[in-house]
């Protein structure tokens, strides 16, 4: 490769810009398709089929939604506080997307002679940065509720800010316990501290790691995470039957979409953090030689299944689309066998699949659990989550101090 | 680069601070104050205070100011009305503040004629580890005392804010 | 360790029990606690002394460091030597007897528990005084017994005369205590320590002071303290008034123990006094003057307790005389025998008073020989002892003193012999007026209960035989060697004769020829009135000291210093503050912003000042 | 890269002057604003200005102590905010106003 090009690409700013573009594109697309996946999954859980009209299996539905939201009339009610009304969705989406900057997706890689981390920025205080952003995220929602000048919105905003402040405590305390095991605040170092296996086959992820397995912290973190992202069963701020649509009642078109984007971005961030803190980040579930073969095998199995379904079409287009996707899957499986792509793709596969499983959990919970009452929600935060996480933190600290 | 960042965020801080003072509506002031705090956090980073920058955002901007916004929203008092007394005070106090600023700047210039140039990365002793070490060794007693202070504050806030028992 | 601390501890415990819970306890329980604590203390002292015998040198027990300040280190130390042993036996032994007696005597009184609480407290302080191994701890006991004396003199505090008598005792003692405390300062300055052994050691190394020096000063100041506590001229005036207290108190505190503290203290400081001849001479003359003066007053008094009070003063004078001539062991011997017979006299007098329902005037007594025979019998023993009838206890100690005095100065000896005769005379007079002749009162005398006369009997035996039993000079031989041990038979005959002469004279005047005293009194006229009115000493003090102080306080301190100066200043400060506040409260507008503006203005001024200074310094730089 | 028209780095005293400016603005807010809650926010602004000086001096001496003082100031500010806002709520509940010049019963 041309050494000039290498040096230009190796420049810090240029490299960061390239990574930024890549991550932004992938993330935004992923957010859009997350919406599609959610609708599909919920539909199937509820014995429906979900979107099917736009594209095969509704695959182009996110694109259609985006176009619709962008071109819809941007309605600003007369009674709102205009400045904050406009500012609020911007803040929400800004802080939500900023969070992705410190998330590492994989280990150090070497592409075309350039060594870099699969991460936009490795901060010493990555976790604190995330906590700060999650704290700032409250403003978007609170301001949206307040500036709408509507009692439903206001109550939604108040509820959301109270809820987020309350659940930030157990969230932070749940984060603190794996930190004690890792001894760092940098997300990359935390993930790297979980490399390897115990007894040869148990991964040294935080939830398994001796001396203090963090299963309880993981559960606490996920519960608090549900509340932080205002997801069911903690979606009081937007409880339709009480508050219309809560803080975004008065919003329409792209501003409305911004809140959804923020919500899904927060979900992705949260699941990534959970993966990095508790589930070993990009480290595989199984030891060395096997881990590289699992992704192609899985993909080939998926591709084979799709082709099989294509041969017995249930609908008109299935006999074309299904084998096409099957072929893509088979090819993707082969990509994992190319030597110089393998060190990039295998960790990425493990990371993405863990995040995906957690995201599925979010959707699954939304489809199955009812909503809390507001006082139950707050009591749950202060009377259960908080003490339990404090005690857990103490126990972890004690175990680490005594046994490590 | 350091200078650009400093001037940029110093400007944001000063403009936001002015906004805090001149805005009629408390919520505007509060948001401006958050702006001040955010830009100060960036300046802290420039000065090598990583942990304090994060704490500034988490504690100040993320918790204390949210509490302010929360209370403002709860009371919803609306924009404040100006009063004649306030105008008199402004006329009297404004020159005082200007003098104050002038003298302080003079003293700073005189007192630190050869103050060091601030370069990012020159001082790296402000990470969580350094702060934690100092906090739990040399400053252990103040740290414990602040925990008592916070306990007292919690009790005070609860007592003040609870509904009157009949 | 012999746990000497237990000796004062028992009475202290008794005091705490009676003082805190006495109100709820029955009288029997209170009495048991009081007597029990003192008897325990006596027994423990006995056990310790037997354990320590023969006690050639002092036994010191150090418990903890009491005061430490620079070079001043004062331990809490108790010590026993032979002198202390004698005092211990006297205090606890006689104390026990008087406690037993008091349970009978005080049985009908209000504040029974209070009385015994005070009495136990007194025992505690007295034992501390005796056991102390340094001047300061001795001072604690010294002040403590003073306090208890005050409390007990004023026991009937509803009676005006009792409370004023208490005040008088307290105030007069203050004068002596001032002298004593200055003496302590001087001792510390001179010797750098307050421990008795170290001070005595150091004093022995110093030369004998021919003219007045630091030792003389110390000794004279100690003497001032002793005159206060032991009722010597010129500070004796409180003791006769102290008879306002209950009779057991008079016996225990104002006859047997506390008043001898001065004698004990001077004896304890013997090494200092021996190096200050001027002070010694002063002690002797003060003792002699006291003895003569009090004895002559005793002749004319009619209140039976007053007679014995002056007798006590007079006998204390004797002791000081002995100390002054260097016969320390004779002085202590007299302390012991005097404790026996004077306690007996007082207790007997108490028995008489008790029998006559609180009648104290001898002119309303008489012929009680048949009515209260036991009391008469025991009082006779005391009478014989104090009069110096040969081979009674008083005779031994008195002859020892007079012998030593004769060796020192014949003039003093003859005055002393005369005083001995007068002593015999007035005691006999009181006996004859009380027990002979016709009963002149109106009450129905009755004998005291056994709980009262049994201790009297014990004391009677001691009064008669105590001198022969306890040869104090012999016991104290290691501490105070007797340089002139030979008994001059002639002197003993003269001394005994003086006592018998006094008794005979009294018999002539009050039994054989009852009209004689009145005619003698009228023929002497002015002199009689002078003596009868106690030489007008109280009146002289009143005019010379009390009145000027009272008047000075009224006009100078009260009307000028207090009303005009201090009140004026206080009121002025108040009105100034009010005036200032009246002006300043205009600033207190309640407006937070105004306050803040003031703060800002102050800060700006401060900063400008700082800037100016910085500018000036920068300019100079 | 072409040379920038501004210096590459600024002296520490600029930070101090910035802090003074922020402090003065905080004082101004305290004095000129009527709403109790804004007055309270002005106090926070002053505290922030002071924190900046702490961190700046910490940089100058290359020691972490200034950071700790800032940390403690934050803790105190948090406690103060909790109690202060509770007081403000109570005041508003009892008086129906947050104007500082109407809350002046603490006089004479």
| Structural class designation of chain D | mainly alpha
Q: What is the CATH-assigned architecture of chain B?
A: Up-down Bundle
Can you give the helix content of chain D as a percent range?
Answer: over 70%
Q: Quick one: biggest sheet of chain D?
A: none
CATH architecture of one domain in chain D: Orthogonal Bundle
| Helix-strand string of chain B | HHHHEHH
Using DSSP, what is the number of strands of chain D?
Answer: 1
CATH fold assignment of one domain in chain D: Helix Hairpins
The main pleated sheet of chain B reads as:
none
Share of helical residues of chain B: over 70%
Q: What is the chains' assembly state?
A: heterotetramer
Strand content of chain B: under 5%
Q: Quick one: CATH superfamily of chain B? A: NADH-ubiquinone/plastoquinone oxidoreductase chain 6, subunit NuoJ
- The structure class of chain B reads mainly alpha
Q: Quote the distance from N terminus to C terminus of chain D.
A: 69 Å
What is the count of helical runs of chain D?
3
The largest inter-chain interface, given as chain pair and residues per side, is:
B-D, 83 and 72 residues
Shape of chain D: elongated
Uncertain segments of chain D are none
The parts of chain B where pLDDT drops under 50 for at least 5 residues are none
Tell me about this structure.
- The complex is a heterotetramer of chains A (404), B (166), C (621) and D (108).
- With 404 residues, chain A is mostly helical.
- Chain A has 15 helices and four strands.
- Chain A has a domain at 68-283 and 338-403.
- Chain B is an all-alpha fold and 166 residues long.
- Chain B has a single domain, classed as Up-down Bundle (Four Helix Bundle (Hemerythrin (Met), subunit A)).
- Chain B is globular, with a radius of gyration of 20 Å.
- The N and C termini of chain B lie far apart (63 Å).
- The model of chain B has no long low-confidence stretch (mean pLDDT 83).
- Chain C is built from 26 helices and two strands.
- In chain C, strand 1 and strand 2 (72-80) form a beta hairpin.
- The longest helix of chain C is centred in the C-terminal third of the chain and has 48 residues, at 537-584.
- The chains are: A mainly alpha (404), B mainly alpha (166), C mainly alpha (621), D mainly alpha (108).
- Chains in contact: A-B, B-C, B-D, C-D.
- The interface between B and D is large, with 83 and 72 residues.
- Strand 1 (117-118) of chain B pairs antiparallel with strand 1 (10-11) of chain D, so a sheet runs across the interface.
């Amino acid at each position: 490769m041309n050494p000039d090009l290498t040096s230009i690409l190796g420049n810090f700013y240029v490299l960061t810009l390239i990574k930024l573009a890549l991550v932004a594109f992938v993330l935004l697309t992923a957010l859009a398709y997350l919406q599609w996946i959610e609708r599909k999954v919920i539909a199937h859980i509820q014995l429906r089929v979900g979107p099917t009209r736009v594209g095969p299996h509704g695959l182009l539905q996110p694109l259609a939604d985006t176009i619709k939201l962008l071109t819809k009339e941007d309605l600003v009610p007369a009674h709102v506080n205009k400045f904050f009304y406009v500012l609020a969705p911007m803040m929400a989406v800004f802080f939500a997307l900023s969070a992705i900057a410190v998330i590492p997706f994989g280990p150090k890689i070497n592409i075309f002679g350039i060594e870099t981390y699969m991460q936009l920025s490795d901060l010493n205080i990555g976790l604190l940065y995330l906590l700060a952003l999650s704290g700032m995220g409250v403003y978007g929602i609170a301001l949206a509720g307040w500036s709408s000048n509507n009692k439903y919105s206001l109550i939604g905003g108040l509820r959301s800010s109270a809820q987020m402040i309350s659940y930030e405590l157990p969230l932070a305390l749940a984060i603190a316990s794996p930190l004690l095991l890792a001894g760092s605040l940098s997300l990359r170092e935390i993930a790297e501290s979980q490399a390897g296996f115990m007894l040869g086959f148990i991964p040294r992820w935080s939830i398994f790691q001796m001396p203090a397995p963090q299963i309880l912290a993981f559960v606490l973190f996920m519960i608090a995470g549900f509340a932080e992202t205002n997801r069911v069963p903690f979606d009081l701020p937007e409880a339709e039957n009480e508050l219309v649509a809560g803080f975004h009642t008065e919003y329409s078109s792209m501003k409305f979409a911004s809140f959804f984007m923020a919500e899904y971005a927060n979900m992705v961030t949260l699941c990534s953090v959970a993966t990095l803190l508790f589930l070993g980040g990009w480290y595989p579930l199984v030891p060395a030689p096997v881990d590289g073969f699992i992704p192609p095998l899985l993909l080939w199995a998926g591709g084979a299944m799709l082709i099989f379904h294509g041969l017995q079409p249930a609908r008109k287009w299935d006999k074309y689309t299904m084998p096409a996707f099957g072929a893509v899957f088979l090819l993707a499986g082969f990509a994992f066998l190319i030597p110089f792509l393998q060190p990039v793709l295998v960790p990425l596969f493990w990371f993405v699949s863990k995040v995906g499983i957690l995201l599925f959990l979010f959707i699954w919970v939304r489809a199955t659990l009812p909503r809390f009452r507001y006082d139950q929600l707050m009591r749950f935060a202060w009377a259960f989550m908080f003490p339990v996480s404090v005690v857990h933190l103490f126990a972890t600290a004690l175990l680490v101090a005594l046994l490590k | 680069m350091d200078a650009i960042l400093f001037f940029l965020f110093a400007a944001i801080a000063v403009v936001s601070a002015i906004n805090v003072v001149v805005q009629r509506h408390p919520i505007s002031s509060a948001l401006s104050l958050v702006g001040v705090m955010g830009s100060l956090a960036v300046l802290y980073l420039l000065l090598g205070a990583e942990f304090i920058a994060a704490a500034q955002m988490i504690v100040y901007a993320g918790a204390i100011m949210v509490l302010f916004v929360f209370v403002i929203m709860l009371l919803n008092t609306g924009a404040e009305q100006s009063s004649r007394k306030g105008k008199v005070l402004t006329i009297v106090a404004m020159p005082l503040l200007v003098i104050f600023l002038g003298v302080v700047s003079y003293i700073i210039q005189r007192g630190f004629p050869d103050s060091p140039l601030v370069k990012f990365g020159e001082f790296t002793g402000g990470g969580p580890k350094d702060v934690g070490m100092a906090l739990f060794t040399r400053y252990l007693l103040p740290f414990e005392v602040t925990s008592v202070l916070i306990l007292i504050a919690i009790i005070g806030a609860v007592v003040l804010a609870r509904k009157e028992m009949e | 360790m012999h746990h000497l601390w237990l000796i004062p501890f028992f009475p202290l415990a008794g005091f705490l029990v009676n003082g805190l819970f006495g109100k709820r306890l029955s009288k029997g329980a209170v009495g048991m606690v009081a007597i029990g604590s003192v008897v325990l203390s006596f027994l423990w002292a006995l056990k310790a002394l037997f354990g320590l015998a023969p006690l050639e040198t002092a036994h010191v027990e150090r418990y903890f460091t009491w005061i430490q300040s620079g070079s001043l280190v004062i331990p809490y130390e108790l010590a026993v030597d032979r002198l202390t042993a004698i005092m211990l036996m006297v205090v606890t032994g006689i104390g026990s007897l008087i406690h037993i007696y008091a349970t009978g005597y005080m049985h009908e009184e209000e504040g029974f528990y209070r009385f015994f609480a005070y009495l136990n407290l007194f025992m505690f302080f007295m034992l501390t005084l005796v056991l102390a191994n340094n001047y300061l701890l001795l001072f604690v006991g010294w002040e403590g017994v003073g306090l208890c004396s005050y409390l007990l003199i004023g026991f009937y505090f509803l009676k005006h005369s009792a409370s004023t008598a208490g005040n008088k005792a307290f105030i007069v003692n203050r004068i002596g205590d001032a002298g004593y405390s200055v003496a302590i300062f001087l001792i510390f300055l001179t010797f750098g320590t307050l421990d008795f052994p170290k001070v005595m050691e150091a004093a022995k190394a110093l030369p004998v002071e021919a003219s007045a020096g630091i030792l003389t000063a110390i000794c004279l100041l100690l003497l001032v303290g002793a005159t206060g506590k032991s009722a010597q001229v010129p500070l004796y005036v409180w003791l006769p008034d102290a008879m306002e207290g209950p009779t057991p108190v008079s016996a225990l505190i104002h006859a047997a123990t506390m008043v001898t503290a001065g004698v004990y203290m001077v004896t304890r400081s013997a090494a200092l006094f021996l190096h200050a001849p001027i002070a010694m001479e002063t002690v002797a003359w003060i003792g002699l003057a006291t003895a003569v003066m009090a004895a002559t007053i005793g002749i004319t008094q009619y209140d039976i307790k007053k007679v014995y009070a002056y007798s006590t003063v007079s006998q204390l004078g004797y002791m000081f005389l002995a100390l002054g001539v260097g016969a320390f062991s004779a002085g202590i011997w007299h302390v012991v025998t005097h404790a026996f017979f004077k306690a007996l006299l007082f207790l007997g007098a108490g028995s008489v008073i008790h029998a006559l329902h609180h009648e104290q005037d001898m002119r309303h007594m008489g012929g009680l020989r048949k009515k209260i025979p036991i009391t008469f019998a025991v009082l006779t023993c005391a009478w014989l002892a104090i009069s110096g009838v040969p081979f009674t206890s008083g005779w031994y100690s008195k002859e020892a003193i007079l012998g030593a005095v004769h060796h020192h100065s014949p003039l003093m000896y003859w005055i002393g012999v005369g005083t001995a005769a007068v002593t015999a005379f007035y005691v006999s007079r009181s006996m004859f007026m009380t027990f002979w002749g016709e009963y002149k009162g109106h009450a129905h005398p009755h004998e005291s209960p056994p709980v009262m006369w049994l201790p009297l009997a014990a004391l009677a035996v001691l009064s008669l035989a105590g001198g022969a039993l306890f040869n104090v000079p012999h016991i104290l031989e290691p501490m105070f060697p007797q340089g002139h041990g030979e008994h001059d038979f002639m002197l003993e005959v003269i001394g005994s004769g003086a006592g018998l002469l006094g008794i005979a004279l009294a018999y002539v005047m009050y039994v054989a020829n009852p009209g004689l005293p009145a005619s003698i009194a009228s023929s002497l006229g002015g002199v009689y009135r002078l003596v009868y009115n106690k030489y007008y000493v109280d009146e002289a003090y009143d005019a010379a000291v009390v009145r000027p102080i009272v008047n000075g306080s009224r006009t100078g301190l009260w009307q000028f210093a207090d009303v005009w100066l201090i009140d004026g200043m206080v009121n002025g400060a108040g009105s100034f503050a009010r005036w200032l506040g009246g002006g300043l409260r205009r600033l207190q507008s309640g407006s937070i912003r105004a306050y803040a503006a003031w703060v800002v203005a102050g800060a700006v001024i401060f900063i400008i000042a700082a800037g100016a200074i910085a500018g000036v310094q920068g300019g100079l730089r | 890269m072409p040379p920038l028209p501004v210096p590459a780095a600024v002296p520490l005293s600029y930070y101090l002057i910035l802090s003074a400016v922020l402090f003065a603005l905080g004082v101004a807010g305290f004095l000129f604003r009527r709403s109790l809650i804004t007055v309270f926010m002005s106090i926070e602004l002053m505290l922030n200005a002071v924190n900046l000086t702490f961190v700046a001096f910490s940089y100058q001496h290359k020691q972490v102590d200034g950071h700790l003082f800032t940390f403690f100031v934050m803790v105190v500010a948090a406690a103060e905010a909790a109690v202060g806002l509770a007081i403000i709520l109570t005041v508003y509940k009892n008086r129906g106003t947050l104007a500082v010049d109407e809350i002046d019963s603490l006089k004479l």
